[in-house]
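A favour between colleagues. Tell me how you read the following sequence-structure pair.

===
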Amino acid sequence: MIISTATYEQRRENVRKRLKDRGHPPLLVSFAANRYYLSGFELHDPQCNETAGWLIIDPSGRDFLLTDPRYHDAARKVWKEDDIFIYSGRKFDALRELFKSNGFKKISYDPKSINIFEHEKLNDFCELKPVSGLVEDLRLIKDETEIKLMEESCALNHKVYELLEPKLVPGRTEAEIAWDVEQLSATTARPNFLSPALSASALTRLCPTPSPAMTSLKRFTGTYRYGGRVGDTAPTRPVHSGSATSLPTVFSPCAIRCRKHRWKPSKYCVPGSQSNTPTTPPKLF
């Protein structure tokens, strides 16, 4: 299951309606998570002072995806060619012309996701109106497709862990376990994206390890992407002597309650409810 183009279009329409209702000018979307939510354009920003792209959501009905030539092919997969704007080294000179040709004299922006340099450059050729939470408030509401993907992502997480547990034995290294995870995910669960495993050797505690070390593993955890959703239900597995079936599992209190009472959290994330304020679950204790 994947999120359809129609879903992204509807999300932008929801933003457009909010802009109109509140009398806001076109919205510049610079926060990467909001960019993906509204477009499906998921390339990561390459570094802290560089963006993979911005969106402009116009209350009048035409939206733009702004990016550089490196990401043009990726942009074509999610956006109409006529509404993709490619800038190069002189980014803000190019944006000045785009804004002028489309009559963008005033722009809404999120002050939490734009740096001082970008603010100063944009302020040279348009008036900036700070607007916070416009997209985030919409992201709180999960539709049926999102809930289904969350369930599938969590199921993937648990399946890989079930198959991995017998392999978590003393003396095995981070690199070996990471390779096990890759193989199990590819041959069994087949996720469309695999997040780096989180593991810890002797003195490192838990930290992301995109380059696993050839050191003996002490504990392991990980999360997996499936259909654009992260299965954030991964427990931490200590690695120590003993049979695979007796390896203790460290769960959060919430996960313990869910397992003990066979309560599925996604059951209470119903369409139209806010993900941070789900309908009241049954009393577990």
